[in-house]
Amino acid sequence: MRTQVAIIGAGPCGLVLGAMLAKAGIDALVIERKSAAYVLGRIRAGVLEQGSVSILEQLGVQARLNAEGLPHGGFAINFAHRSLRIDLESLTDGKKVTVYGQTEVTHDLMDARAAAGLSTLYEAEDVALHDFATATPSITCTHNGQPLRIDCDFIAGCDGFHGISRASVPKTALQEFERVYPFGWLGVLADVPPCDPELIYASHERGFALCSMRSMTRSRYYIQCAIDEDLSSWSDTRFFDELRRRLDPEAAARVVTGPAIEKSVAPLRSYVAEPLRFGSLFLAGDAAHIVPPTGAKGLNLAMGDAFYLAEALREHYGERSSAGIDHYSARALERIWKAERFSWWMTSLLHKFDQHTAFETRMQAAEFSFLEQSRAARMALAENYVGLPL
Ligand code: RFL
Ligand code: PHB
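A: This is the predicted complex of the input protein with P-hydroxybenzoic acid.
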């Protein structure tokens, strides 16, 4: 087979890139290791920045998002039995975020791809990248039991943190920056109304908790847990009891419990690989970087990378200029590092770190107190939370 751009991974990054390239008249093939159902079964992000919403609008996949997405003009931070509302709208000249699950974004992009007759190879096994240091790269895989070779001009590695793309780059060509946090998040999805119409980020001496949602009838809750937490020891009752202990009493009283329809532990990590281009191979999304979920940035960054990369490739094919692809790495990294900083900052402010001394605990308290007191500090938080410009 031959295509102009071979995209590895049908997560939000690969699907947004595929849709943007199709819109620009560039031929692309998406190659995914898992089945479509498996990809849709992963419960992940829930908060879209305005820039991400606008990317989906430009792609014409906004119908369900507009009908079912929940605009949020603010959220609360609970800290040491105090509550602070971050009024995103007034702090950012009217910007909001939209609560709409990553599963739904993926679903909409998959449907649009199928409707446009664009192909995705699901359940592609043993995907391997070849000759990406040259201008004639290729990909091999096994599909429906048949060996397949795809020749292309470029490879977009959108295959997530554990994908094959970054792993195919010689270690010596890659600089890696990493912080692994000594805890995880235990998440529960349940068909119960959320305890509050807005998100609540709670810092508590027992550990962090987050109240989020997917709709007004489906809640998503997280609590900070051990990195090697044993899921089987967490009954639904134990989870909700622990969640309520970490919330302020009014919010706790409003928590409606119900059977978990999903329960999982996610590790927390900050990670960046540099650069994002190796000859004909580009890395984008979680394949290139990871943020801890506290700032709700991972999905949005993945869509931002896809946007930059699509623009670069459009310049290459449409204007015969290599400026875009030459600058993709630096341009994307500039924004990525700011989201890394913000996610690290929010994680550091709100979690309980066992190794913290009394000094660091006081620093967290002073940071929160400064947020309460300073509109400028809240503005900086809000500016980052709604998303820095693309
Ligand atoms: P994905 O979604 O991991 O997709 C990568 C795809 O590549 C496939 N793949 C391969 N395909 C072919 N060959 C191979 N060898 C392959 N290896 C892997 C995989 O099967 C998969 O389909 O990466 P992408 O597209 O870069 O998207 C990134 C986002 O998924 C991620 O950043 C977010 O989910 C992070 N995240 C959040 N981000 C937000 O913006 N807002 C949030 O509120 C938010 N909450 C979260 C999150 C992530 C979480 N977890 C579980 C890590 C909450 C949680 C709990
Ligand atoms: C979610 O709804 O899954 C969610 C929301 C906000 C975050 C992280 C996850 O910061």
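The longest helix spans residues 323-350. The pocket of RFL (ligand 1) is lined by residues 8-14, 31-34, 39, 44-47, 102, 124, 127, 158-160, 163-164, 185, 187, 266, 285-286, 293, 296-300, 302 (CB under 6 Å).
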